[in-house]
Amino acid sequence: MRKKMALLVSLVAAVMISATNVVAGEVEVLHWWTSGGEAAAVQELQKMLEKEGHVWKDFAVAGGGGSAAMTTLKSRAVGGNPPTAAQVKGPQIQDWADLGVLTSLDSVAKAEGWDTTVPKVVSDVMKYDGSWVAVPVNVHRINWMWLNKSVFDKNGIAYPKTWDEFFMAMDKLQKAGVTPIAWGGQNWQEATVWETIVAGVGGNDFYKKALVEADIAALKSDTMVQCFEVMKKMKQYTDASAPGRDWNLATAMVIKGEAAVQFMGDWAKGEFTAAGKKPGTDYDAVPAPGTDDAFLFNIDSFIMFDVKDADAKKAQSAMARLILSPAFQTVFNVNKGSIPVRSGIAEDPFDMIAVSAMGDFTDTAKSGGLMPSMAHEMAVSPAIRGAMFDVVTNFYNSDMSAADATMKLAAAVEEAKM
Ligand code: BGC
Protein backbone atom coordinates (compact mmCIF):
# COMPACT_ATOMS: atom_id res chain seq x y z
CA MET A 1 0.00 0.00 0.00
CA ARG A 2 2.78 2.39 1.06
CA LYS A 3 4.69 1.48 -2.10
CA LYS A 4 1.61 2.20 -4.18
CA MET A 5 1.17 5.60 -2.53
CA ALA A 6 4.80 6.51 -3.13
CA LEU A 7 4.47 5.55 -6.78
CA LEU A 8 1.33 7.63 -7.10
CA VAL A 9 2.96 10.65 -5.48
CA SER A 10 5.96 10.49 -7.78
CA LEU A 11 3.71 10.03 -10.80
CA VAL A 12 1.64 13.08 -9.88
CA ALA A 13 4.82 15.07 -9.31
CA ALA A 14 6.18 14.01 -12.71
CA VAL A 15 2.96 15.04 -14.45
CA MET A 16 3.00 18.38 -12.68
CA ILE A 17 6.60 19.03 -13.61
CA SER A 18 5.99 18.33 -17.28
CA ALA A 19 2.76 20.37 -17.25
CA THR A 20 4.58 23.39 -15.90
CA ASN A 21 7.50 23.07 -18.32
CA VAL A 22 9.77 23.01 -15.27
CA VAL A 23 10.59 26.73 -15.14
CA ALA A 24 8.02 29.45 -14.71
CA GLY A 25 8.46 33.04 -15.73
CA GLU A 26 6.42 36.19 -15.65
CA VAL A 27 5.05 38.05 -18.64
CA GLU A 28 3.69 41.55 -18.30
CA VAL A 29 1.30 41.97 -21.21
CA LEU A 30 0.15 45.35 -22.46
CA HIS A 31 -3.10 45.30 -24.43
CA TRP A 32 -6.32 47.26 -24.84
CA TRP A 33 -8.81 44.42 -24.63
CA THR A 34 -11.08 45.60 -21.84
CA SER A 35 -14.66 45.23 -23.15
CA GLY A 36 -16.69 42.15 -22.17
CA GLY A 37 -15.93 40.17 -25.32
CA GLU A 38 -12.30 41.31 -25.53
CA ALA A 39 -11.56 40.46 -21.91
CA ALA A 40 -13.18 37.01 -22.25
CA ALA A 41 -10.95 36.35 -25.26
CA VAL A 42 -7.63 37.49 -23.80
CA GLN A 43 -8.28 35.70 -20.51
CA GLU A 44 -7.99 32.44 -22.44
CA LEU A 45 -4.34 33.23 -23.12
CA GLN A 46 -3.76 34.04 -19.50
CA LYS A 47 -5.33 30.71 -18.47
CA MET A 48 -3.21 28.74 -20.92
CA LEU A 49 0.01 30.40 -19.79
CA GLU A 50 -0.86 29.89 -16.15
CA LYS A 51 -1.56 26.23 -16.87
CA GLU A 52 2.05 25.95 -18.00
CA GLY A 53 3.12 27.52 -14.72
CA HIS A 54 3.84 31.06 -15.93
CA VAL A 55 2.66 34.25 -14.31
CA TRP A 56 0.53 36.73 -16.24
CA LYS A 57 0.80 40.33 -15.18
CA ASP A 58 -2.05 42.12 -16.84
CA PHE A 59 -1.31 45.59 -18.20
CA ALA A 60 -4.62 46.61 -19.80
CA VAL A 61 -4.97 50.18 -21.00
CA ALA A 62 -8.60 50.89 -21.84
CA GLY A 63 -9.53 52.73 -25.02
CA GLY A 64 -10.93 51.23 -28.22
CA GLY A 65 -8.60 51.25 -31.21
CA GLY A 66 -5.59 51.29 -28.88
CA SER A 67 -4.26 54.83 -29.11
CA ALA A 68 -4.17 55.25 -25.31
CA ALA A 69 -2.35 51.92 -25.03
CA MET A 70 0.24 53.01 -27.59
CA THR A 71 0.90 56.27 -25.73
CA THR A 72 1.43 54.32 -22.50
CA LEU A 73 3.70 51.85 -24.25
CA LYS A 74 5.88 54.62 -25.65
CA SER A 75 6.30 56.27 -22.27
CA ARG A 76 7.19 52.96 -20.61
CA ALA A 77 9.73 52.21 -23.33
CA VAL A 78 11.25 55.69 -23.19
CA GLY A 79 11.58 55.21 -19.42
CA GLY A 80 13.63 52.07 -20.14
CA ASN A 81 10.97 49.81 -18.65
CA PRO A 82 8.93 48.24 -21.45
CA PRO A 83 6.50 45.40 -20.67
CA THR A 84 7.47 41.87 -21.72
CA ALA A 85 4.88 41.76 -24.49
CA ALA A 86 2.66 44.36 -26.12
CA GLN A 87 -0.25 44.42 -28.53
CA VAL A 88 1.18 46.33 -31.49
CA LYS A 89 0.19 46.08 -35.12
CA GLY A 90 0.86 46.94 -38.73
CA PRO A 91 3.75 49.23 -39.69
CA GLN A 92 4.42 50.05 -36.04
CA ILE A 93 5.94 46.59 -35.68
CA GLN A 94 8.70 47.65 -38.07
CA ASP A 95 9.21 50.91 -36.16
CA TRP A 96 9.76 49.06 -32.88
CA ALA A 97 12.04 46.52 -34.57
CA ASP A 98 14.04 49.40 -36.06
CA LEU A 99 14.85 50.54 -32.54
CA GLY A 100 16.48 47.17 -31.88
CA VAL A 101 14.41 46.48 -28.76
CA LEU A 102 12.53 43.36 -29.88
CA THR A 103 13.23 39.70 -29.33
CA SER A 104 13.45 37.40 -32.33
CA LEU A 105 10.75 34.75 -32.32
CA ASP A 106 12.47 32.68 -35.01
CA SER A 107 13.14 29.61 -32.90
CA VAL A 108 9.47 29.29 -31.86
CA ALA A 109 8.41 30.04 -35.43
CA LYS A 110 10.66 27.27 -36.74
CA ALA A 111 9.61 24.72 -34.17
CA GLU A 112 5.94 25.49 -34.76
CA GLY A 113 6.11 25.78 -38.56
CA TRP A 114 4.68 29.32 -38.72
CA ASP A 115 6.06 29.80 -42.22
CA THR A 116 3.75 27.13 -43.55
CA THR A 117 0.63 27.89 -41.49
CA VAL A 118 0.54 31.71 -41.59
CA PRO A 119 -0.31 33.37 -44.95
CA LYS A 120 2.58 35.32 -46.48
CA VAL A 121 0.63 38.62 -46.58
CA VAL A 122 0.47 38.34 -42.80
CA SER A 123 3.98 37.05 -42.09
CA ASP A 124 5.50 39.86 -44.17
CA VAL A 125 4.11 42.34 -41.63
CA MET A 126 5.32 40.25 -38.68
CA LYS A 127 8.90 39.94 -39.94
CA TYR A 128 11.75 42.40 -39.81
CA ASP A 129 14.77 41.67 -41.99
CA GLY A 130 13.39 38.19 -42.57
CA SER A 131 13.09 37.44 -38.87
CA TRP A 132 9.82 36.96 -36.92
CA VAL A 133 9.46 39.81 -34.42
CA ALA A 134 5.69 39.69 -33.88
CA VAL A 135 3.11 36.96 -33.54
CA PRO A 136 -0.28 37.43 -35.21
CA VAL A 137 -3.41 36.60 -33.26
CA ASN A 138 -6.42 36.89 -35.54
CA VAL A 139 -8.06 38.46 -38.56
CA HIS A 140 -10.84 40.97 -38.01
CA ARG A 141 -13.13 42.18 -40.79
CA ILE A 142 -14.07 45.84 -40.60
CA ASN A 143 -16.85 46.35 -43.15
CA TRP A 144 -19.77 44.87 -41.22
CA MET A 145 -23.19 46.20 -40.39
CA TRP A 146 -24.60 44.69 -37.14
CA LEU A 147 -28.39 44.47 -36.98
CA ASN A 148 -30.87 43.80 -34.22
CA LYS A 149 -33.12 41.19 -35.80
CA SER A 150 -36.34 41.83 -33.88
CA VAL A 151 -36.15 45.58 -34.50
CA PHE A 152 -36.12 44.91 -38.25
CA ASP A 153 -38.72 42.11 -38.06
CA LYS A 154 -41.14 44.09 -35.87
CA ASN A 155 -41.06 46.99 -38.28
CA GLY A 156 -41.34 44.76 -41.35
CA ILE A 157 -38.07 45.97 -42.82
CA ALA A 158 -35.66 43.80 -44.80
CA TYR A 159 -31.92 44.18 -44.27
CA PRO A 160 -30.77 46.89 -46.68
CA LYS A 161 -28.37 45.96 -49.47
CA THR A 162 -27.79 49.32 -51.13
CA TRP A 163 -27.26 52.78 -49.66
CA ASP A 164 -30.69 53.86 -50.97
CA GLU A 165 -32.36 50.95 -49.22
CA PHE A 166 -30.31 51.70 -46.15
CA PHE A 167 -31.49 55.29 -45.84
CA MET A 168 -35.12 54.28 -46.55
CA ALA A 169 -34.89 51.74 -43.73
CA MET A 170 -33.35 54.33 -41.39
CA ASP A 171 -36.25 56.70 -42.14
CA LYS A 172 -38.85 54.07 -41.30
CA LEU A 173 -37.08 53.07 -38.10
CA GLN A 174 -36.77 56.65 -36.98
CA LYS A 175 -40.51 57.15 -37.51
CA ALA A 176 -41.10 54.02 -35.45
CA GLY A 177 -39.23 55.61 -32.54
CA VAL A 178 -36.01 53.55 -32.66
CA THR A 179 -32.57 55.16 -32.79
CA PRO A 180 -31.61 53.93 -36.25
CA ILE A 181 -27.80 54.05 -35.98
CA ALA A 182 -25.80 53.33 -32.81
CA TRP A 183 -22.94 55.81 -33.21
CA GLY A 184 -19.75 55.96 -31.21
CA GLY A 185 -18.46 59.51 -31.53
CA GLN A 186 -14.69 58.96 -31.30
CA ASN A 187 -12.26 59.68 -34.11
CA TRP A 188 -11.18 56.09 -34.71
CA GLN A 189 -14.81 54.90 -34.82
CA GLU A 190 -15.74 57.66 -37.25
CA ALA A 191 -12.75 56.68 -39.41
CA THR A 192 -13.88 53.05 -39.23
CA VAL A 193 -17.33 53.94 -40.59
CA TRP A 194 -15.82 56.27 -43.18
CA GLU A 195 -13.46 53.67 -44.65
CA THR A 196 -16.35 51.22 -44.92
CA ILE A 197 -18.30 53.88 -46.84
CA VAL A 198 -15.27 54.53 -49.08
CA ALA A 199 -15.23 50.84 -50.02
CA GLY A 200 -19.03 50.68 -50.32
CA VAL A 201 -19.56 53.82 -52.38
CA GLY A 202 -16.29 53.91 -54.31
CA GLY A 203 -15.66 50.18 -54.75
CA ASN A 204 -12.48 48.19 -54.21
CA ASP A 205 -10.22 49.89 -56.74
CA PHE A 206 -11.19 53.29 -55.41
CA TYR A 207 -10.55 52.18 -51.82
CA LYS A 208 -7.08 50.98 -52.76
CA LYS A 209 -6.21 54.18 -54.60
CA ALA A 210 -7.54 56.49 -51.91
CA LEU A 211 -6.84 54.71 -48.62
CA VAL A 212 -3.93 52.39 -49.40
CA GLU A 213 -1.95 54.36 -51.99
CA ALA A 214 -3.16 57.72 -50.60
CA ASP A 215 -3.42 58.87 -54.20
CA ILE A 216 -4.18 62.59 -54.26
CA ALA A 217 -6.36 62.49 -57.38
CA ALA A 218 -8.59 59.83 -55.77
CA LEU A 219 -8.67 61.72 -52.49
CA LYS A 220 -9.97 64.85 -54.15
CA SER A 221 -12.32 63.15 -56.60
CA ASP A 222 -16.11 63.48 -56.94
CA THR A 223 -16.38 59.92 -55.67
CA MET A 224 -14.82 61.07 -52.39
CA VAL A 225 -17.36 63.89 -52.20
CA GLN A 226 -20.11 61.27 -52.47
CA CYS A 227 -18.50 59.22 -49.67
CA PHE A 228 -18.48 62.22 -47.35
CA GLU A 229 -22.11 62.94 -48.26
CA VAL A 230 -23.18 59.45 -47.26
CA MET A 231 -21.31 59.77 -43.99
CA LYS A 232 -22.93 63.11 -43.11
CA LYS A 233 -26.36 61.78 -44.06
CA MET A 234 -26.00 59.16 -41.34
CA LYS A 235 -25.76 61.81 -38.65
CA GLN A 236 -29.50 62.59 -38.60
CA TYR A 237 -30.12 58.95 -37.65
CA THR A 238 -27.91 59.02 -34.56
CA ASP A 239 -28.84 60.10 -31.03
CA ALA A 240 -27.76 63.15 -29.01
CA SER A 241 -25.49 61.08 -26.71
CA ALA A 242 -23.30 59.79 -29.57
CA PRO A 243 -20.33 62.17 -29.05
CA GLY A 244 -17.58 60.40 -27.11
CA ARG A 245 -19.49 57.11 -26.80
CA ASP A 246 -17.33 53.97 -26.58
CA TRP A 247 -17.80 51.39 -29.33
CA ASN A 248 -19.00 48.66 -26.98
CA LEU A 249 -21.69 50.93 -25.55
CA ALA A 250 -22.90 51.51 -29.09
CA THR A 251 -22.94 47.73 -29.60
CA ALA A 252 -24.94 47.40 -26.37
CA MET A 253 -27.61 49.67 -27.86
CA VAL A 254 -28.04 47.22 -30.75
CA ILE A 255 -27.95 44.23 -28.40
CA LYS A 256 -30.76 45.73 -26.31
CA GLY A 257 -32.82 46.84 -29.32
CA GLU A 258 -32.43 50.52 -28.44
CA ALA A 259 -30.79 51.01 -31.82
CA ALA A 260 -31.14 49.13 -35.09
CA VAL A 261 -27.63 49.01 -36.58
CA GLN A 262 -23.96 49.66 -35.91
CA PHE A 263 -21.10 49.81 -38.38
CA MET A 264 -18.10 48.23 -36.68
CA GLY A 265 -15.44 45.56 -37.05
CA ASP A 266 -16.29 42.09 -35.81
CA TRP A 267 -14.95 42.65 -32.30
CA ALA A 268 -18.58 43.84 -31.94
CA LYS A 269 -19.57 40.18 -32.27
CA GLY A 270 -17.57 39.49 -29.11
CA GLU A 271 -20.04 41.71 -27.25
CA PHE A 272 -23.08 39.86 -28.65
CA THR A 273 -21.43 36.55 -27.72
CA ALA A 274 -20.57 37.74 -24.20
CA ALA A 275 -24.23 38.80 -23.81
CA GLY A 276 -25.37 35.28 -24.79
CA LYS A 277 -26.91 36.45 -28.10
CA LYS A 278 -27.08 34.17 -31.13
CA PRO A 279 -26.60 35.18 -34.76
CA GLY A 280 -29.61 34.45 -36.96
CA THR A 281 -31.88 34.53 -33.87
CA ASP A 282 -31.13 37.70 -31.95
CA TYR A 283 -28.93 39.56 -34.37
CA ASP A 284 -27.26 39.40 -37.74
CA ALA A 285 -24.27 40.86 -39.51
CA VAL A 286 -24.11 41.63 -43.21
CA PRO A 287 -21.40 43.41 -45.16
CA ALA A 288 -22.15 47.15 -45.27
CA PRO A 289 -24.01 48.23 -48.45
CA GLY A 290 -21.82 47.84 -51.53
CA THR A 291 -19.09 45.86 -49.75
CA ASP A 292 -20.06 42.24 -50.41
CA ASP A 293 -16.89 41.78 -52.43
CA ALA A 294 -14.65 43.62 -49.99
CA PHE A 295 -12.85 42.37 -46.90
CA LEU A 296 -11.17 45.21 -45.05
CA PHE A 297 -8.78 43.33 -42.80
CA ASN A 298 -7.31 44.18 -39.43
CA ILE A 299 -4.81 41.86 -37.78
CA ASP A 300 -3.93 41.98 -34.10
CA SER A 301 -0.46 40.95 -33.03
CA PHE A 302 2.00 40.98 -30.15
CA ILE A 303 5.62 42.06 -30.09
CA MET A 304 7.99 40.85 -27.38
CA PHE A 305 10.64 43.09 -25.91
CA ASP A 306 14.19 41.90 -25.37
CA VAL A 307 14.39 40.84 -21.73
CA LYS A 308 17.43 39.58 -19.83
CA ASP A 309 15.75 37.25 -17.37
CA ALA A 310 15.96 33.66 -18.63
CA ASP A 311 12.64 32.62 -17.09
CA ALA A 312 10.88 35.60 -18.59
CA LYS A 313 12.35 34.60 -21.97
CA LYS A 314 10.85 31.13 -21.54
CA ALA A 315 7.48 32.65 -20.69
CA GLN A 316 7.71 34.85 -23.78
CA SER A 317 8.32 31.95 -26.09
CA ALA A 318 5.54 29.96 -24.41
CA MET A 319 3.20 32.89 -25.04
CA ALA A 320 4.22 33.10 -28.68
CA ARG A 321 3.78 29.34 -29.14
CA LEU A 322 0.38 29.31 -27.45
CA ILE A 323 -0.96 32.25 -29.50
CA LEU A 324 -0.67 30.30 -32.75
CA SER A 325 -1.66 26.94 -31.26
CA PRO A 326 -4.89 25.48 -32.70
CA ALA A 327 -6.55 25.39 -29.25
CA PHE A 328 -5.96 29.08 -28.60
CA GLN A 329 -6.78 30.15 -32.16
CA THR A 330 -10.16 28.50 -31.70
CA VAL A 331 -11.17 29.61 -28.23
CA PHE A 332 -9.79 33.14 -28.61
CA ASN A 333 -11.38 33.88 -31.96
CA VAL A 334 -14.74 32.37 -31.00
CA ASN A 335 -14.85 34.87 -28.13
CA LYS A 336 -13.25 37.79 -29.93
CA GLY A 337 -15.45 37.74 -33.04
CA SER A 338 -12.47 37.39 -35.38
CA ILE A 339 -11.29 34.42 -37.45
CA PRO A 340 -8.10 32.36 -37.04
CA VAL A 341 -4.99 33.77 -38.68
CA ARG A 342 -3.45 30.37 -39.38
CA SER A 343 -4.53 27.42 -41.48
CA GLY A 344 -5.68 24.07 -40.19
CA ILE A 345 -8.36 25.23 -37.74
CA ALA A 346 -11.72 23.43 -37.80
CA GLU A 347 -14.76 25.59 -38.65
CA ASP A 348 -17.34 23.80 -36.47
CA PRO A 349 -16.82 25.72 -33.23
CA PHE A 350 -17.41 29.01 -35.09
CA ASP A 351 -20.77 30.71 -35.67
CA MET A 352 -22.30 31.43 -39.09
CA ILE A 353 -20.87 34.96 -39.22
CA ALA A 354 -17.32 33.75 -38.66
CA VAL A 355 -17.79 30.95 -41.18
CA SER A 356 -18.99 33.46 -43.79
CA ALA A 357 -15.99 35.68 -42.98
CA MET A 358 -13.65 32.70 -43.49
CA GLY A 359 -15.16 32.06 -46.92
CA ASP A 360 -15.01 35.73 -47.88
CA PHE A 361 -11.40 35.97 -46.68
CA THR A 362 -10.38 33.19 -49.08
CA ASP A 363 -12.51 34.50 -51.96
CA THR A 364 -11.42 38.13 -51.66
CA ALA A 365 -7.76 37.06 -51.42
CA LYS A 366 -8.24 35.71 -54.96
CA SER A 367 -10.47 38.48 -56.33
CA GLY A 368 -8.45 41.42 -55.03
CA GLY A 369 -11.09 42.49 -52.51
CA LEU A 370 -8.90 41.65 -49.51
CA MET A 371 -7.70 45.11 -48.50
CA PRO A 372 -5.90 46.52 -45.46
CA SER A 373 -7.84 48.73 -43.07
CA MET A 374 -6.64 52.33 -42.97
CA ALA A 375 -8.39 53.09 -39.67
CA HIS A 376 -6.80 50.06 -37.98
CA GLU A 377 -3.22 50.77 -39.00
CA MET A 378 -2.86 48.24 -41.77
CA ALA A 379 -2.58 50.55 -44.76
CA VAL A 380 -0.89 53.96 -44.61
CA SER A 381 1.83 55.58 -42.47
CA PRO A 382 0.85 56.93 -39.04
CA ALA A 383 1.24 60.50 -40.35
CA ILE A 384 -1.18 59.97 -43.25
CA ARG A 385 -3.58 58.08 -41.04
CA GLY A 386 -3.53 60.92 -38.52
CA ALA A 387 -4.23 63.45 -41.29
CA MET A 388 -7.18 61.38 -42.51
CA PHE A 389 -8.59 60.95 -38.99
CA ASP A 390 -8.47 64.71 -38.37
CA VAL A 391 -10.29 65.67 -41.54
CA VAL A 392 -12.95 62.96 -41.19
CA THR A 393 -13.71 63.82 -37.58
CA ASN A 394 -13.71 67.57 -38.16
CA PHE A 395 -16.01 67.10 -41.10
CA TYR A 396 -18.44 64.84 -39.27
CA ASN A 397 -18.59 67.07 -36.21
CA SER A 398 -19.03 70.40 -37.97
CA ASP A 399 -21.10 71.86 -40.77
CA MET A 400 -18.20 71.53 -43.24
CA SER A 401 -19.47 70.63 -46.72
CA ALA A 402 -18.51 67.34 -48.36
CA ALA A 403 -16.72 69.26 -51.12
CA ASP A 404 -14.63 71.20 -48.59
CA ALA A 405 -13.81 68.03 -46.68
CA THR A 406 -12.55 66.44 -49.89
CA MET A 407 -10.22 69.36 -50.66
CA LYS A 408 -9.01 69.44 -47.05
CA LEU A 409 -8.39 65.69 -47.11
CA ALA A 410 -6.22 65.88 -50.22
CA ALA A 411 -4.28 68.86 -48.83
CA ALA A 412 -3.72 67.24 -45.41
CA VAL A 413 -2.53 63.96 -46.93
CA GLU A 414 -0.24 65.80 -49.34
CA GLU A 415 1.33 67.58 -46.40
CA ALA A 416 1.66 64.38 -44.37
CA LYS A 417 3.54 62.81 -47.26
CA MET A 418 6.26 65.45 -47.12
C1 BGC B 1 -8.35 46.00 -32.51
C2 BGC B 1 -9.36 45.05 -31.94
C3 BGC B 1 -10.12 45.73 -30.82
C4 BGC B 1 -10.73 47.03 -31.33
C5 BGC B 1 -11.51 47.79 -30.28
C6 BGC B 1 -9.04 47.30 -32.91
O1 BGC B 1 -8.09 48.20 -33.40
O2 BGC B 1 -7.73 45.45 -33.63
O3 BGC B 1 -8.73 43.90 -31.46
O4 BGC B 1 -11.09 44.87 -30.33
O5 BGC B 1 -9.69 47.87 -31.80
O6 BGC B 1 -10.73 48.08 -29.20
Give the class from helix and strand content and strand pairing: alpha/beta
CATH class of the largest domain: Alpha Beta
- Give the name of the CATH superfamily of the largest domain: Periplasmic binding protein-like II
- Unreliable residue runs: 3-22
What Rg, in angstroms, do the CA atoms define? 23 Å
Q: What gross morphology would you assign?
A: globular
Explain what the structure shows.
This protein has helices at residues 2-19, 36-51, 67-78, 92-98, 106-112, 114-117, 120-126, 149-154, 163-175, 187-202, 204-212, 216-219, 222-234, 247-256, 267-274, 310-323, 326-336, 352-367, 382-396, 402-417, and strands at 26-31, 55-60, 85-87, 127-128, 131-132, 134-136, 140-141, 144-148, 179-181, 259-263, 283-287, 295-298, 301-304, 370-372. The strands form four sheets. The chain has a five-stranded mixed beta sheet. A four-stranded mixed beta sheet has the order 9-10-8-11, with helices on both faces. It has 418 residues and is α/β, with parallel strands linked by helices. A hairpin with a 2-residue loop joins strand 4 (127-128) and strand 5 (131-132). Residues 3-22 have low confidence and may be disordered. It has two domains: 2-140 and 298-367, D-Maltodextrin-Binding Protein, domain 2 (3-Layer(aba) Sandwich), CATH 3.40.190.10; 141-296 and 375-416, Periplasmic binding protein-like II (D-Maltodextrin-Binding Protein, domain 2). The relative contact order is 0.17. It binds beta-D-glucopyranose. Beta-D-glucopyranose (BGC) is lined by residues 32, 38, 64-66, 140, 247, 267, 298, 300, 376. Beta-D-glucopyranose binds at residues 32, 38, 64-66, 140, 247, 267, 298, 300, 376.
